[in-house]
Amino acid sequence: MLEAVLLIAIGVLTAVMANLGIAVFNDGIRPIVPENLEGRMSRKELGVTAFAMSFGLVIGFGIPISISGSILLIHSILLGTDIIGLAFKRGKFSTVIAGALGGLYGAGIYFGLQAVVNAFKMLPLNFIDGFNKIGEPVVVSFMVFPAIAIALQFTLKKGILAFVVAALARQLIVFVNTEKLLSINGSPLVLSPEGIALIVGMVFLIAFAMREKSEEQNLSTLATLFTDRVLKIKKYAWVLMISGALIAAATHLLLIAGDPISLSLLAKGKVAEGGFAALAKAIGFVPLIASTAIATGVYGPVGFTFVFAAGLFSPNIVVAIIAGAIIIFLEIQLLTQLAKLLDRYPGIRASGENIRTAMTRVLEVALLVGGANAANAIVPGLGFFGIAGFYLLNEAAGRPIVRMAVGPIGAIAVGILGNILVLLGLYTPPQ
């Protein structure tokens, strides 16, 4: 029951934090929250906006990805508690209601998702095994995002350079692993090729970004412009530390994952690789999350997302809890210094949005390919046909479903269709 209690506690706390305007998970909603807190937007408008921006991602992205790896993607929980918390006005009674509903939502996600997985396994055509192929291209494709971010922010030539060097680094590690050239006390040391490629790409991205320095000598820093909002975040540091502790603990138990890449690795039992992927993502998202937090006074319930890596690298749950709380505390205390750094190196601040765009594009392609592979493994031939048609019809309809969700949702649809065909005697699954 520890897992259920953790998810319920996360649901209660994050819904309350969203309701009070302390923290929200959706980066797109965070800049809007002060509009309500400062009286320029009604609570009803804020709630409707939160629902419009998050609900589709919960249904079409968070839950399907969670099913594919049997590990909860954090988006499926925290996007939902954003909606719940922001739907109610602030007030003692309404905040308590938001917290209660957040807890019920956490319990529903935990027990409901497991029930869905168990129900799938009882179908005449069990497509869970095929569905797990969705994550396979994600892990390999993820190492491309620094090169894409470089191409978007700097030049295509620099992006190609980073891509080529990262690819060569990956193949070099594959060779080293194959030849067993590295060892510790006689035992071969195996490195992650994708992890090394990702690190190489991030080094290029940071190096290019730091070459852009501000030419204004009397530039007012973000911290100076938004002093009151930084102080507000520091005021609620203790609440955010509890959130960090709970998230790190749940991650340590492999109950949740912070992104599809680490989730795919964790589903395969590659905890260390998943930790490094979570760490790389956190480093890449610091500029974006820090900028929005400083400018709005609204933090994220997972901070800069380093708590996920802390949970995976911790030797036990007690260490994970302590590490999660300490990391959030340090992040908040460093906000002022980060603001000065972002002002000194505007290239780093600008890289935040480019990193997000690059990650989104990589995931769109990887999840589409993964969804096609999964669908074709479930029903050969029909799978590729179904995903291609689903993708193109979604584009023709004006993209009502986000591109990242097309592959996973399409694979589920093919699985359901395959079961109908089996029941009708029109398809015999291979033995």
Q: How would you describe the overall organization of this protein?
A:
- By secondary structure, this protein is an all-alpha fold.
- It folds into 2 domains: 2-126 and 216-344, no CATH class; 128-213 and 348-423, no CATH class.
- It is built from 21 helices and 4 strands.
- The protein has helices at residues 2-20, 33-37, 43-69, 74-87, 92-121, 128-131, 136-141, 145-153, 156-179, 193-210, 222-225, 227-235, 237-252, 260-267, 271-296, 306-313, 317-333, 335-344, 346-378, 382-396, 403-423, and strands at residues 72-73, 183-184, 187-188, 256-257.
- The strands form 2 sheets. It has a two-stranded parallel sheet.
- The longest helix is centred in the last third of the chain and has 33 residues, at 346-378.
- The chain is globular, with a radius of gyration of 22 Å.
- 52% of the residues are buried.
What is the percent of helical residues?
over 70%
Count of runs of 4 or more consecutive helical residues: 21
CA radius of gyration is: 22 Å
Q: Give the mean pLDDT.
A: 84
Total domains, how many?
Answer: 2
- Taken in chain order, the helices and strands follow as HHHEHHHHHHEEHHHHEHHHHHHHH
Side by side, the strands of the main sheet go 1-4
Number-wise, the strands total: 4
Largest sheet: 2 strands, parallel
* Helix and strand composition category: mainly alpha
Q: Report strand %.
A: under 5%
Global shape: globular
Terminal-residue CA separation: 37 Å
Uncertain segments are none
